[in-house]
Design goal:
Residues 64-259, 289-328 form the Menorin-like domain. The protein is of the alpha/beta class. The chain has helices spanning 7-37, 50-56, 77-85, 119-126, 143-153, 180-187, 216-226, 246-259, 270-281, 309-314, 326-333; strands at residues 70-71, 90-97, 105-107, 132-137, 161-169, 196-202, 233-238, 282-283, 286-287, 291-296, 320-323. The model is unreliable at 34-43 and 259-287 (pLDDT under 50).
């Protein structure tokens, strides 16, 4: 007992308490300064709520993005009716600005330039449902007027809203991507707070030839583009190009794990980085990440479905959506290791 109460031990204990208090104070000061003096960094965790929504509706039973089903190209009155009556969770449609008067957003995919349904009427149909929507923009001129129409009905929309565009050139891409700065300035409105931004690369695929995957330059350029966005972001990636792109896309997803850590590499000592990451990226014991992948396929693409298993097994199942043909989804779910 005398040893425990010795003056030297008491002084040592006090010194350690003081060091702990000073360390915690330093960390809190750093966090406060980064939050309040770095305008481009958001302290709010913007995460994709798509799975949580469909779980709450009883539409899926487990938190697995592979269970989300898609209805594609709902660009006509018949197609939107069919999609609303289907088992799909998310309805995808393409948007252009009508080429003749009245020049307004319509549901059409190039080379089509007209449609029997406008975006205004399309939104009237979907807002009565509990499905999510994915709006795929094919022209810059359609973005701003479309977001105005979307903002008018947001309060009545129940499901998730995804805003999609190809904003960077990608492997084999021949189409001209939408200007990323102009697109994001138009798509990110005060009302778009909870939208998922689906930001992709233009791509191409040719049979009987070597089709390169997503390069390091491509994913680094995309990461730089998305670094300061406050929205959750999903990256649409072409299934036929993924066999040799795992390292690049895995790295891209990992960047969102650090995006909310306030990128303090140059300010905070190494031993404190992990603590700040926990403070800024976790809530109720859960870690939140802003980035996900959406694996899609062209109708004529050929690829080995088994090549998707590394993405399935090595990346959190909440972070990869599979927008595949029904036959490919069935095959994937039947593979050992799925």
């Amino acid at each position: 007992m005398a040893v425990l109460n010795s003056p030297s031990l008491i002084r040592l204990f006090r010194a350690r308490v003081i060091v702990l208090i000073l360390t915690c104070s330093f960390v809190l000061c750093v966090v406060w300064n980064l939050e309040n003096k770095t305008p481009e960094i958001s302290t709010e965790l913007m995460t994709d709520q798509t799975l949580e929504y469909f779980l709450s509706q009883g539409k899926i039973q487990v938190k697995d993005a592979a269970d989300i089903e898609w209805a594609h190209a709902a660009n006509s009155k018949n197609k939107i009716t069919e999609a609303l009556q289907s088992s799909a969770h998310m309805i995808e449609a393409d948007i252009l600005l009508r080429s003749n008067d009245p020049k307004e957003p319509i549901m059409a995919h190039p080379p089509e330039t007209d449609s029997d349904v406008t975006l205004r009427d399309w939104l009237k149909e979907v807002k009565a449902s509990d499905k999510g929507i994915k709006l795929d923009f094919k022209s810059l001129t359609a973005v701003a007027p479309s977001m105005v129409l979307l903002d008018e009905v947001r309060a009545e929309l129940r499901g998730p809203v995804w805003i999609n565009a190809d904003i960077l050139p990608g492997p084999g891409g021949k189409a001209t991507p939408l200007d990323p700065k102009v697109f994001l300035e138009a798509a990110v409105t005060p009302g778009s707070h909870g939208d998922v931004l689906s930001l992709g690369w233009t791509t191409g695929w040719t049979a009987d030839t070597h089709n390169p995957g997503y390069s390091w330059e491509m994913v680094r350029e995309m990461e730089a583009m998305c670094r300061t966005l406050r929205h959750p972001v999903t990256f649409p990636v072409r299934a036929a190009l993924l066999a040799h792109s795992f390292s690049q896309l895995h790295w891209l997803l990992q960047q969102s794990d650090r995006s909310n850590s306030m990128r303090s590499q140059d300010v905070v000592p190494a031993l404190l980085k992990h603590l700040i990451l926990l403070i800024s990226c976790s809530q109720d014991g859960r870690t939140f990440c802003r980035y996900s992948l959406t694996i899609w396929t062209g109708h004529t693409d050929v690829f080995v479905v088994k090549d998707l298993l590394p993405y399935r097994s090595d990346i959190d199942k909440t972070r990869i959506y599979y927008d595949l043909l029904d036959s490919q989804r069935t095959q994937l779910k039947g593979l050992t290791g799925y």
